[in-house]
DNA sequence: GTTTTTTTGCAAATCATTTGCATTTGGAAG
DNA sequence: CTTCCAAATGCAAATGATTTGCAAAAAAAC
């Protein structure tokens, strides 16, 4: 199933902190914050410094292994593997649902044609009310 | 042409600072930062406090008159009128181009069907290399 | 094992954004 | 057009996420 193959990019060393961070990102179901990773690891009994987490997230993002994003009304960055980059957020309960078949791909061609850009990436965030909250 | 009709939302007072901020947002061609508004107004000879700008942007965003977003590799928020919400960013020169005919609308129905969300908003950010930078 | 270079942890520094509070202002009511 | 009060502003201080300097620890190289 959802097996990822996150690896430590070439040129960087393999450390237990680095691997632990990757593991948390792998099992996360949606974009998470640095603080979230910190807590998660604390639960796992792994002691790590927040700055190490930030430094690794910066590296991973630069290397394209993770994607950084911000959620509406939140002041902290979230990080996720690229396949969890597009998501729906429920404005009531905060539930986050990943958009699997990214609708964007179908528009890519159109955008290239209209604007002439060589497109390298994108990020889509959608807000709404989830089915459960609609019933209330 | 591009005439906007930004107004001060009902229940809020008309102040010269508020109007000045709205004016800057109207003439901006893409999402701008609070600092940008501050500078712009300083140039216009209008003296205003940064906190007033932040307070107004928060209000405008809450009222739906502006949209807040973050750009890749930037740590500060940007604000724009809703029609300038979706844009392309050149990774080389930083040029920003607004996506006029938002491709998203075509997917809205599909998303509603698949996830059952009642969709209230979205934001799309696309990265790439602009035509000029491609030539270099 | 020893050396070299990267990574980490800690504490202090940054920097965008927020907040408390006294003062000013808009505009409703008289 | 004066009076009055809530809303808005400015300033300085506080906040909170993220970054950074530096010495110690740990990888990979030798």
Structure description:
The structure is a homodimer of 136-residue chains. Chain A has 136 residues and is an alpha+beta fold. Chain A has two domains: 1-83, Arc Repressor Mutant, subunit A (Orthogonal Bundle); 86-136, Ferric-uptake regulator, C-terminal dimerisarion domain (Dna Ligase, domain 1, 2-Layer Sandwich). Helix content of chain A is 38%, strand content 21%. Chain A has five helices and six strands, in the order αβααββββαβα. Chain A has helices spanning 16-27, 34-43, 50-62, 105-115, 131-135; strands at 32-33, 67-70, 77-80, 87-90, 96-98, 118-129. In chain A, strands 1-3-2 form a three-stranded antiparallel β-sheet. In chain A, strand 2 (67-70) and strand 3 (77-80) form a beta hairpin. In chain A, helix 2 crosses helix 3. Chain A is flat, with a radius of gyration of 17 Å. The termini of chain A are far apart. The mean pLDDT of chain A is 88. The interface between A and B is medium-sized, with 33 and 33 residues. Strand 6 of chain A pairs antiparallel with strand 6 (118-129) of chain B, so a sheet runs across the interface. The structure holds a DNA duplex (30 and 30 nucleotides).
């Amino acid at each position: 199933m959802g097996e990822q193959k996150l690896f430590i990019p070439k040129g960087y060393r393999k450390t237990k902190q680095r691997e632990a961070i990757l593991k948390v990102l792998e099992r996360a179901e949606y974009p998470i914050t640095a603080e979230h990773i910190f807590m998660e690891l604390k639960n796992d009994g792994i002691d790590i410094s927040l700055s190490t987490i930030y430094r690794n997230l910066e590296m991973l993002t630069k290397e394209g292994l993770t994607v950084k994003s911000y959620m509406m009304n939140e002041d902290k960055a979230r990080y996720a593997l690229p396949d969890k980059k597009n998501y729906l957020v429920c404005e009531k309960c905060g539930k986050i649902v990943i958009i699997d078949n990214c609708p964007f791909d179908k528009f890519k061609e159109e955008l290239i044609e209209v604007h002439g850009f060589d497109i390298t990436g994108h990020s889509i965030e959608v807000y709404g009310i989830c089915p459960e909250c609609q019933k209330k």
